[in-house]
Amino acid sequence: MTTPQIAWHGGVRVVTDESGPAVTVRSARDIAADGDRHMAARLQTGGEVSLLQDGRSVRVPAGSLVLYDTGRPFKIVMPERQRAHILAVPRALLRQEESVLRSITPMVIAPETADDGEGTTAGLTALATAMLEELIVAEPPVREHLARAVADVVGSLVAEHVGSRRRAAEPRELLWRRVTGFVEQNLGDPELSPQRIADRHHISVRYLQVLFQQQGTTVNGWVRERRLEAASRDLVRSGAHRRSVAAIAARWGFTNPSHFSRAFREAFGASPMQWRDGAHSRARIGDSQCGEGKVGPTAAA
């Protein structure tokens, strides 16, 4: 095993690691002892390793660049002889929130596969790779400037990756609006189900469930809430006393009046009839008070 060569250049640490087969483990005790909390960019120039952090495992073949956090425990498994250049970058140079850095590490980028639709990620990865290789052989006066330049490129890679993730999430937001709009328009259909909603939008039921879970709810729960809200508004509209509670329930997709009454009471703390009668009673009292001059601008006049 070759001892890694370590050098500091303008706050950026550069390591060339030639070793293996071996397993490198950085524990919470190690982190507490040395206080090293850099972000590491590892350029795998030979052999292949696996890196595990935060319960996520990534394969890092030769030619790939992997980003990980030295401030959190990790393990690198080297099943064969391997070689890598490692750039340890101060976290501030990446200009990202801690929650973002935690969510994207470990992150692997391979020049031949990286693609964000415009080639930006692939281009930045190739640039970082070339600059890291140059940094290893550069003359000492140049290394400090080159190290900071590589750190800036790695920071740009992280920013581009974060931006790609956000762009990828935008269609999900549009899908959410389409799905919920469809549900709102079909609340009265008793056959409205997760399967029908998923089929209508050409997605799996599992993906539909995940979509709603990300909003802190479930498909059936969200549909039931919208139906109950619509029914509650119908119950207090003018003339609602001329329609039965069962008819209003059926209008909003509830085929079982008993089930509707139980769900309504759980949601609003009153039965549908109490909700309706209470609203009309309050309306009659308000009208009476206005007529007696007790409230309202007319009385004041």
From TrEMBL:
InterPro entries linked: AraC-bd_2 (IPR035418), AraC_XylS_family_regulators (IPR050204), Homeodomain-like_sf (IPR009057), HTH_AraC (IPR018060), HTH_AraC-typ_CS (IPR018062), Tscrpt_reg_AraC-type_HTH (IPR020449)
Pfam families xrefs: AraC_binding_2 (PF14525), HTH_18 (PF12833)
Keywords: DNA-binding, Transcription, Transcription regulation
UniProt domain HTH araC/xylS-type: residue ranges: 177-278
Taxonomic classification: Bacteria, Bacillati, Actinomycetota, Actinomycetes, Catenulisporales
Electron transport keyword on record: no
Name of the protein in question: HTH araC/xylS-type domain-containing protein
Keyword Hydrolase listed: no
PANTHER family: ARAC SUBFAMILY, HTH-TYPE TRANSCRIPTIONAL ACTIVATOR RHAS-RELATED
Location of the region described as Disordered in the Swiss-Prot/TrEMBL record: 279-301
